[in-house]
């Protein structure tokens, strides 16, 4: 997977995650504003049903699915970045991406990779020997 593809996938995942979070915040905010939650102190004990509750539930599910899709897209972009950097002669970028991803700092590693990371596909193409065409 080339670096531009990894970059597009990662940025798309960030946008999808932000959109999903906004949808969830809107759904919960509207539910609270319209007193759809029956509260006992700080706890929600019941939900008032109706068409608005159903619509906000659908909006919340859509937001949750967008966030899950963003997480899957982020994982795929991280794996693509690992595959890309594994083709480099120096394995420093590969190790940094791998270790930070394993220890839950993969987001920061991916931001660094998107901004200044090398493209392993161009390095692999440069290493291939040029075979002259038969005459």
Whole-number radius of gyration? 22 Å
Adjacency order of strands in the biggest sheet: 1-2
Number of beta strands? 2
Structural class: mainly alpha
Question: How much helix, percentage-wise, in residues?
Answer: over 70%
Task: List strands and helices in order, with pairings.
Layout: H1 3-33, E1 37-40, E2 43-47, H2 51-85, H3 92-102, H4 106-116, H5 120-127
Antiparallel strand pairs: 1-2
Describe the structure.
The protein has helices spanning 3-33, 51-85, 92-102, 106-116, 120-127, and strands at residues 37-40, 43-47. The chain is elongated and about 80 Å long. Strand 1 (37-40) and strand 2 form a beta hairpin. It has one domain (3-116). The mean pLDDT is 90. Helix 1 packs antiparallel against helix 2. Strands 1-2 form a two-stranded antiparallel sheet. The chain is mainly α.
